[in-house]
C-alpha cells in the first residue's frame, strides 16, 4: 500500500464528469467523404478537407464539395495560413504548399528523411512547422505505436527561403500541433495520451484517449482522439516478454492495438466485457475503437466532449475544428464529415 | 425409399470408418498440482474462519511451554480443569445470547446469585440435592427470563437491560449474601454427593470439567442439529429474514436468554458445591472475562455464529494465559495490562485476516497455466461466402439464450433459456411458444431419451429430466469426490452437454469444477483441465466420473455406430473420442486444430458431425495462452471488463465427416444475427442454430441433405 506512491503518474482520466458519456457524434448531421483525414478552415471562410488523395472545398454545409487540389498520394495533413496559403502533407512525407487558388508554390522543401507528415501549422506566411509521427506509409502506425520502444517522432520547421531544420526528435508518435496563447508550440502524443512542449516536457497528461490532432479555438482547444485509452493495452505495455513474443510471432494486423473501425473481426481478441448480447454491443462495453472529441479550456483541462460510444459507428475521429461557429469533425470509421453544432465551451 | 435409406444408415452404423487405435491417445493428468490453488482451496474452507483462535491457542500453549517449567504437569492441569467450569460454562451461556443477536452483561451477577441460591438451599433450607440444583438453575433461568422479556420481547435493548440486571442483581446479591453468609459458613450440613460434585474426579477429571464438556457438546449439537439452534442462528444472522421465514423470533430470543441463564445457573451450582461459600467479589469481572473469551473465539461480536469449538478455544487461550501470567508471579495489574495487550494483538490479526481473506482467495484462486493450442487447420476461417447469411430467424426476441436446441420426432423445437425455463416452439412454423417446464438454474445441453423425455444439463444444478407432462425430476447433482484435491468437487458445478447411449446411460460433461456459469470465461484464462466427463445410469441411479481433468469438456455426441462418444474440449480446440466399451482406456483425439472454440457436437444426416463454434481463435489469444503470468497479472491489474478474452463475437458451424476431417464451414456476416453459435441440430433437411447469448434461433435449409433424417430416428428409430 505504501509503496504505490512511487508511481507518480496521475491516474488517467475516465469518461466521467465533463467527459461523461453522450452521443453527440452519433446524433450529428453528417456528410459522406470517402477516406477523410484532415480539416482546415481556409482564409476565405470555406472548409477544406482531405478525401483520399484529393483536397475538397466546402463553401457551406449541405452544398456539394468542390475539388481544390489533387495529389499522387493520400493527403495526411492540411493547414491554412491567414494569407490563404494551404500546406498539404502527403502519405510518405511529401509536402506541398498551395496558393489560395490551389496552385502549388515552389520553394517549400521538407527535411529529407521524413517518414510522414501528419499535421502542419503555419507560423507565418513563410514558415511552417510539420509533424512526422515516424511511421512510413506502409507501416501500421496504430498497431505499432503502443509497443514501440523508442520515440520516432520528429518536428521540423520549413521555410520558403531557408533550409528546413528539425526542431525536435524522439517524440512518442506525435500526431498534432497547435500554439498556445503565449505562442509556444504544443504537440499531442498518440499512445502516451498527453500534450507535450517542444522540449518534451508534458504540459498535461492522462487523457482518456489515444490522441489525434489539437486545434486552437476561441475558448481553448479541440482535441481529437483516434480511440479510447484502454486499460488492457496500458497493462500490456508493462508485459515486455509477452509483447516481444507477439512481435516475433504474430503479424501486426492481429495485434492488440487501438483501432479506428468498430467492425467485428474474428482474427483479433476482444475484451471480456465486449461480448455481444442478443447480437449487440453495450454502449458502455470496452472497445478498441471509439469516437471522441474533447473540448479543452486554455489550460488544456477538459470541459466537454462529443462521443460515439462502443456500439456506435462514428469512431476514429482524426480532426475537428470550428467552422462558422459550428464544431466540425471527421470520422474515419464511418467516412463522414460531422457537424456537431456549438461546442459546450462556446457558450 | 424411406425404408431403404434407413437400412443403408443402419449398415453404416456398424463400424467407424477408421481404426480407433490409430488416433493419438490423450492422457489427462491424474491430479493438478498448484500451490496457489491449494492455498486458495484451503482458505475457502469453512473452518478457516476459526483459524485465529486455533493459532492463538497454539501460540499461547507453545509460549507457556517454553517459558514456564511444569505448567502442564498433571497436578497443575487438574487444578486448571477444576476451575475451568466456572468461566467455561458462563462463556457458553453468553455464546447462546450473542448468537441470537443479544448480549448479556449480567452473567457475573447471575453466576454469583445462582451460587448463593445453591448454598442457601443446601445450608439454610436443608433441601435435598435435587431441589438445590433446581433452585440454582431456576435462579439462573429467572434472570435469563427477565433479561429475555425486557430485551427480546419488549425490545428495551440488550446492552441497557442486562447492564441494569447486572447492577440490580449485584445489589440484591450483596444484600442477601451479607445477611446469610454467617449462617451459611457456620452450617454443619454435609453430603457425600455434594462433596463429590465439588471435589470428585471421575476418570481423572473433576466433575465440573465433565459438566463443561457435556454442556459444550450439547450446545454444539443444538447449533448443528436441532431446530431451536438453527432458529437461533437464523435470527442472529438476519432477524428480519428469520421473521419472514416464519421463525417465532421473540419467543426464540427469550428462550435463548433463558437457556443462557440456565447454563450460568449450572456454573453457579458447581461453584457453590466446590467452594461451599461465596464472597462479596464472587463473579465480579466475570462478564468481561467471558466476553473476552467470546471475542477471541468469534473474532468480535458476531451474531448468528454458533461456533462452540472456536469459542472454547478462545476461552482456553485466555484462561491459560491468565493463569500462566499469575503463575509467573506478576502483579495483578500488570497481568491485566499484558492480557489486554495480547488480546488486542490477537484481535487485530483476526480482523485483518477476516478482512483480507476473500482478497487472498481472489488473488490466488485463478492460477493460469501455460498452454499451447494446436495450429489451426487452414482454410476454414470467416471471410468470403457467408453461408449462414439469409438463414431464417425463429422466435426472435422470445427466447433468452438458447444454448442448445432440440427437435422431437414431431418436429417441435425445444430450448432452455437463461431464466431457467424449458421452452417449446411448436411445429411446423415454430411460432407458437409455450413453456414446457420451469427448471431453474441455467439449462444448457438437451437430449431426448428412449421414452421421449428430455434430459437437460443445468448449470448450477446438475442433470434434470423433464417428462412430456412437464414434470421435472433431478437425476443427479453429485459425483464421487476426487481424492487428490483439496477442493471438494462432489457437486456438479456446470453440467454442460449430454448424450444418451443405446443402453440408456447418460454421458454428460461438467465443464468446469471451479467456476460458475457467470464466470466460466475465467476457465479460459486459467487454461487448466478443470472439467470432467460423467455418466449417470438411470437403472441404478449411480453417477460415475468417467474421466476427470479434461480441458473445458463441452459438447457430447454419440457416434453413429452408438459405441463411441465425441467430447468437445473447448479451449484446446479439439474433439476427443471415448470408446464406450473401454472407458478406462481414456480419450483419443478425434480432431484437433479447429479454427474456433467448439461447443456442442451433433450428428449429421450424412454420417458426419456438426460442431458449433462458440467463438473464434486468434493469434494473440493463442499466444496469451502460452504466457500464464500475463494472464494472472492481468486479472489483478485490469478490471474484469477489460480482460483479454477469446473472441466470442463471431462464431460458426463446422461440418466434419465421419472420420473427423473438416469438410465445410458456415459463417454469418461479421455483424450478422448468428454470431456465437453454441449448438445446432439437423432435422428434416434443415439446420437449427442456437446461441447462448442470442435471443433467436436460426434455421438454415441444407440443400441436398436427407430430408427424412431426424435426431430421434437416428438415435431411437422413432419417426
Write the layout of secondary structure elements.
The complex is a heterodimer of chains A (347) and B (719).
Chain A: H1 24-27, E1 29-32, E2 36-41, E3 47-51, E4 54-58, E5 66-70, E6 75-80, E7 86-90, E8 95-98, E9 104-105, E10 119-124, E11 127-132, H2 141-145, E12 153-159, E13 165-171, E14 174-179, E15 185-189, E16 194-197, E17 202-205, E18 209-217, E19 220-228, H3 231-236, H4 240-249, E20 270-271, E21 291-296, E22 302-308, E23 317-323, E24 326-331, E25 336-341
Antiparallel strand pairs in A: 1-25, 2-3, 3-4, 4-5, 6-7, 7-8, 8-9, 10-11, 11-12, 12-13, 14-15, 15-16, 16-17, 18-19, 19-21, 21-22, 23-24, 24-25
Chain B: H1 2-13, H2 35-44, H3 51-67, H4 74-99, H5 107-124, H6 129-154, H7 158-186, H8 192-199, H9 207-225, H10 227-237, H11 239-244, H12 249-275, H13 286-298, H14 308-327, H15 332-365, E1 392-394, E2 405-407, E3 413-416, E4 421-425, E5 433-438, E6 442-448, E7 454-459, E8 462-466, E9 472-476, E10 495-500, E11 506-510, H16 521-526, E12 531-537, E13 542-550, E14 553-558, E15 564-569, E16 574-579, E17 588-591, E18 596-603, E19 609-616, H17 619-625, H18 628-637, E20 644-645, E21 652-656, E22 662-667, E23 679-683, E24 686-690, E25 697-701, H19 711-716
Antiparallel strand pairs in B: 1-25, 2-3, 3-4, 4-5, 6-7, 7-8, 8-9, 10-11, 11-12, 12-13, 14-15, 15-16, 16-17, 18-19, 19-21, 21-22, 23-24, 24-25
